[in-house]
Design a protein that fits this description.
Helix 2 packs across helix 3. This protein has a two-stranded antiparallel sheet with strand order 1-2. 55% of the residues lie in helices and 6% in strands. The protein has helices at 6-18, 21-27, 35-44, 46-63, 67-81, 102-115, 122-127, 140-155, and strands at 85-88, 94-99.
């Protein structure tokens, strides 16, 4: 692997198991308290990063599993899951009903879409430009907050300083005690 310490060599091997730097650092003998930091430091070391890349490439070549193989299997699963299959009885005869596995198809399509960058996650999703929005567009998070607030108001849990839209203001001097007429 390289001129690494035994723990660094073990980290390279352990990291290739699950691609989790913190867990690999713990399994390599680093303190659980510092494993997260050590994992990050080790991954930022160019020599260790190169050793990991080599080990992953060797594994991929040895197992014949690479991104193309995974994408091919996902595509196969989508096609199979979206087929309408006849339901068969215990004797293997068609019952006249048909089924397909929508859950498997959706999951495989989701993974393929992620691979193609169709659904950004994390910071990329936050920075994604949604383009032109129709007039009156309110993002889902805001709509849910508005709904929750309306529910509080309806239950009387919103406090005294609530302005209810569409209601008539009380006559002067008859409002809540903290509102000046």
């Amino acid at each position: 692997m390289g001129p690494f310490t035994p723990r660094q060599n073990r980290f390279v091997s352990e990291y290739c198991l699950d691609l989790n730097a913190t867990a690999a650092a713990k399994r390599s003998g680093y303190s659980p308290q510092s494993a997260r930091q050590q994992g990050s430091v080790l991954l930022s070391n160019p020599a260790i990063a190169a050793a990991i890349a080599d080990a992953l490439a060797n594994r991929s070549e040895r197992t014949k599993v690479d991104a193309d193989w995974v994408i091919g299997k996902l595509t196969e699963n989508v096609e199979r899951a979206m087929q309408t299959e006849p339901v068969r009885d215990a004797a293997g005869d068609p019952t006249g009903e048909y089924t397909h596995n929508a859950t498997a198809a959706i999951r495989a399509l989701e993974l393929l879409g992620r691979h193609l960058g169709m659904w950004p996650t994390g910071a990329a999703a936050a920075a994604a430009d949604l383009g032109d929005k129709p007039p009156g567009f309110i993002p889902l998070e805001e709509r849910l907050a508005i709904y929750a607030r309306e529910e509080e108001i309806a239950r009387g849990e919103a406090g005294e300083n609530v302005v209810r839209l569409g209601t008539v203001a009380p006559p002067a001097g008859e409002g809540p005690p903290n509102v000046r007429p």
